[in-house]
Design brief:
Number of strands: 5
Number of domains: 1
CATH superfamily: Methylglyoxal synthase-like domain
Strand order of the largest sheet: 3-2-1-4-5
Order of helices and strands: EHHEHEHEHEH
Function: Catalyzes the formation of methylglyoxal from dihydroxyacetone phosphate.
CATH class: Alpha Beta
EC number: 4.2.3.3
CATH topology: Rossmann fold
Catalytic activity: dihydroxyacetone phosphate = methylglyoxal + phosphate
GO biological process, one term: methylglyoxal biosynthetic process
InterPro entries: Methylgl_synth, Methylglyoxal_synth_AS, MGS-like_dom, MGS-like_dom_sf
Largest sheet: 5 strands, parallel
Low-confidence stretches: none
Shape: globular
Number of helices: 6
Radius of gyration: 13 Å
Length: 120
């Protein structure tokens, strides 16, 4: 199972804390984590293993969306900052739309992500 991890800048600390709190779950042999570049670097600094894509504004959201369309992503955890402006919002919307098109579970906040981890 591959889980994509993404977080807007204002949510990166919350994402790292969430993943660390559930590290034994995410570090299972059958789970691979991929992340946008900056989120991935935060996760790596926290001691977690993750495959990093480009940063979001440089195409990381699109890279993850491409893998999703290819059937290589099983779940997306994307802590969005609904109050911030994001220069790559079009990529974010595309990723979320493709989750809907391809019926991929998408958690956009910690409460939804908690529900997801209970299914792993």
């Amino acid at each position: 199972m591959t889980i994509a991890i993404i977080a807007h800048d204002g949510k990166k600390a919350e994402m790292v804390a969430f993943i660390k709190d559930h590290a034994p779950l995410f570090q299972q042999k059958n789970i691979d984590l991929i992340a946008t570049g900056t989120t991935g670097s935060h996760l790596e600094r926290a001691g977690l293993e993750v495959k990093r894509m480009e940063s979001g504004p440089m195409g990381g959201d699109a890279q993850i969306a491409s893998r999703l369309v290819e059937g290589k992503v099983d779940m997306v955890i994307f802590f969005r900052d609904p109050l911030g402006k994001h220069p790559h919002e079009v990529d974010v919307n595309m990723l979320m739309r493709l989750c809907d098109v391809h019926n991929i579970p998408l958690a956009t906040n910690q409460a939804a992500a908690m529900r997801f981890v209970k299914t792993l």
